[in-house]
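Batch job 17 of 40 flagged for manual review because the log was empty.
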Amino acid sequence: MSEKQFEKIAFHFNTSETNVKFYIKLFFLLTNVKWWQFSKKAKMRIVLRTLPLSDLHKTYDFIFKDNNRTIFPDNIKIGKTKYFPPQNRISNFTADEFAIVDDLHIKWRETKNVEYLQYMAAVLYYASDKRGLFDKNELHDKAKPFSKLSIKKLLAIELAYFGCKNNLVKRFPKAFPKQKPGESKPKKKYGFSKVILSMAKGDLSKLDLIKKVNIYTFLEQFEEDLTPDKK
């Protein structure tokens, strides 16, 4: 689908209730019918009158399954500055960048405060096609320009990140253990910042080096550390 479709669908999922109107609007979004395409719109209405909505829903039920979107909206221009997204599947992310953006993502899901989306975008996008060294202390200032982004664009970025997180969860299941049926939720959630700290094993001189490790390399090592010795 086009980026505009993706943005509208992300917005639709976050702002609409799942009723009949929701499914009809989603159908028109996925078929990419523009408001001025009266002939195409008329044909889609004939389809809606002819076929039960439950049957039509089966043709696009993939969108309700696991989010596996890992490609981010392309270069974003804010004012005169162009911002570049991370690589597909955040494959060029560091452990520290992932720890920060994942905490922000959890906060967004809990509070629905748009400011968390702006901070997420500031971690994910750089004003250069080559990602520089990430500095958490600069995040507040870096996030200011992203307050100018539309909510649709921010929600599309969030949905793409969530797809990348889902990809990591599938690839590294021990690092992201699922809650067992009947198991009570932990009172305190541990973030990956604490995991990074534990990987340093008390040696703070190693902390900065570990933070800069590629997230995939980091999680591979973390999985290995969590795997019991076969002996």
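Reviewer: the log was empty due to a logging misconfiguration, but the result itself is present. The first strand starts at residue 76 and ends at 78. Unflagging and moving on to job 18.
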